[in-house]
Amino acid sequence: MRRLFILGLLVGFAGLLAGVHFFPWVSHTRLSSQTSVVANGGRSEQFVIRLPADRIETVALDGPGSPAANFGAALDSQAPALEHFKIRDRSGNVVGIAARHWALSQDGATTTWALIFPARGAVVVAHAGEARDAIAAALRGRGHVAGSQWDGELNVALVDDAATTRSVIGLKEFEGLDVRYTEEWRLTGVDEHGAVRGTIELDTVSRRGS
Amino acid sequence: MKYVIATLLGVLLGAAGAAAVLYYNPLTRVRELPPKESWTLNYDFPGGSTLALTHAGQLGLPLIPSDVATLWETAITDVVLNVLVLEDENGAPRALASRISVPSRETDLLLRGFLVSEHWLITVPGQGTLFVDGENNLWPFLKESLIPVKYLQQEWHGPVRYPVTIGPTVGRTAEVFGVSGAYAGLRGSAVESYDLRRFSSDFGIEALRGTLAVALEERADAVEAELAAKPATTAGRE
Description:
The structure holds two protein chains of two kinds. Chain A has three helices and eleven strands, in the order αβββαββββαββββ. Chain A is elongated. The longest helix of chain A is centred in the N-terminal third of the chain and has 21 residues, at 2-22. By secondary structure, chain A is an alpha+beta fold. In chain A, 16% of the residues lie in helices and 47% in strands. In chain A, the strands form two sheets. Chain A has a six-stranded antiparallel β-sheet, with no helix packed on it. A five-stranded antiparallel β-sheet of chain A has the order 1-2-11-10-8, with helices on one face. In chain B, 23% of the residues lie in helices and 39% in strands. Chain B has helices at residues 2-24, 139-151, 220-237, and strands spanning 39-45, 50-54, 80-87, 93-103, 115-124, 128-137, 160-163, 165-167, 174-178, 186-200, 204-219. Chain B is an alpha+beta fold. The radius of gyration of chain B is 21 Å and the shape is globular. At the A-B interface, α1, β3, α2, β4 and β5 of A face α1, β2, β3, β4 and β5 of B.
């Protein structure tokens, strides 16, 4: 009986530790990557953002009670724009989330995308930023008046030459990859509150090394 | 029958011993690193500094604003997005940050702890943008505050400070990558800590002051040049 007790003691002790060690506490749903090989080497992959459904939040820096209101005058001329989206693969499945920061500095404007894929890793890419309110200006050029509804078709290529973009860092599955991208906004409408309808297409090409 | 009881008793006592080992396990503790020359960015959680906070809805954390889109889709259901105003040491707003937290598959409650990958995209208005890749161990917080207070209805013994960053670098710090403006090309390290000031079984985290200490070091191209020069230097000595 004593032997059984000691055996049980060992099994309980080692079993719990082994279970805690080997149990997969975290497991992210992994959808197959929809990539294709490009002719001159590398891998291309398109990510799509459907507006307005995939817009998580556009941060209002000047809203009443906003913690950002304490920035005061610092934001008057240099206010960055922070946007957050769900990102989809080419088939329309949500595969990650993205933060887009548009910011001014002494070197001019920069747009930075942080694309986070829980099952795959992360990519950070950047480009010389577009003019402030570039989308609103393009819409105005097609007859949109603030506060009113607009329907039509408008394509705005915010980045049309991937060679001008920068790969900042790739993590996990993207580690060591030089990722370049183009960014095109394909708009089909605006509602009376200013929310745009359409898609943002990020076409990426990843190559080994930088 | 007595043999079965003896075996079961042994298993239960063995498991209790293992649980005690897990609780006091030094491998999953996070040691506080000595401070580097750095600037600190502070925030209050869950309110105060938060511009937006969203997740799948099951974490017991608020959604800010209340109509923010939830991250319910299967592939992102574990993700927490927190948009913050970061303050400097004097309490003045210094930066805006998007913080994306993802539980890590490296989680191992025996050897490493409960790990969360932290991705920060930080913009300092007028200065530029940087990205921070960190790995935090939340196991000390979970086992000392959350589980005993929230689930075992024990009294909370606080306030308490939790250093949380344990990687991904070998120096157990987060990595910082300068993206644009004054930070373009800079590299560095960062460590994060939580000052948990109020915690209750009803509301969970009521007041937490987070601190991200960022130390910017060398330009990335200088680091690469140094690395490239190392083999040549070694060869020259031989």
